[in-house]
Amino acid sequence: MDASPTNTYMFDPESTAELSRLLNQDQLQTQAMGGPFAGLSETEIDGLNNVLDLGCGPGGWVLDAAFQHSEAEVAGIDISRPMIDYANARAQSQGRTNASFGVMDITQSLDFADGAFDLVNARYLVGVLSRERWQPLLAESRRLLRPGGILRLTEPIVYPMTTSPAAEAINRLLHQALWKRGYGFSPDGKTSGDGVSFYLPRLLRQSGYQAVKTMPHTLEISDDTPVWTAFYRNMEVGCLMAKPLLVKMGVTTEEDFDQLYQQMLIEWNTPGFTGLWHFLTVWGYKPE
């Protein structure tokens, strides 16, 4: 493990606001997916003894997985010490003795033995990994998996599609900023989504994974749904967290962003607001 990990996350991983936003996002995402192990068969889930979550943040997926499958040991790793400390505190308060967390940099070699895990999971690494970092991570994950083990990744198909023109404009700015920073596989930074999810099945096959499968997920976030308030709070914080990156990458100015942001909040609170959040889970198997 690198003794001095370098943060590659597009937001501030030490921020308490980002910690809270990720907790919110974890809950919404797992709800939309239908549980932490969505897509895996009951037989596959029953066979999981050791599980690893990459870029675990405050530990939402790990704790859900440890609760659903109490016979498995579920570990989470993240570059952020505050998030890991919080995740460990949550595990202790919830009595999740089969959940553990540690600080590691997923862009480096990881401090685990070959074949240590039955499942390696990760969600929303689009804002963590530059495009040249994906193949090394897939290779490192393959090293960590036992023969027949599963790598399972979930990434956005598109950022939330809504009736808010300002929100759509901010999404386009985020695509451009990430592309300019070297993230995603979009050909020009202007196509919908992050340019990662559509490429993942090919990436897994190129990295030696077999029987690659996909499962799309959709969560409606319209103003007459139960999740509107939670998702609104997520967008409210997330867009502010994105502002420094957007300005730094030169895709907008502080003044223009602030105007768009305030307009977005108004439009999200306009009666009849409608939206959908689409994302994709892709998984494959290490050869026996």
TrEMBL record:
Matches recorded under Gene3D superfamilies: Vaccinia Virus protein VP39 (3.40.50.150)
Taxonomic superkingdom: Bacteria
Domain Methyltransferase: 51-149
A Pfam family recorded for this sequence: Methyltransf_25
GO molecular function: methyltransferase activity
PANTHER family: 2-METHOXY-6-POLYPRENYL-1,4-BENZOQUINOL METHYLASE, MITOCHONDRIAL, METHYLTRANSFERASE
Protein name: Methyltransferase domain-containing protein
Taxonomic lineage from the root: Bacteria, Bacillati, Chloroflexota, Ktedonobacteria, Ktedonobacterales
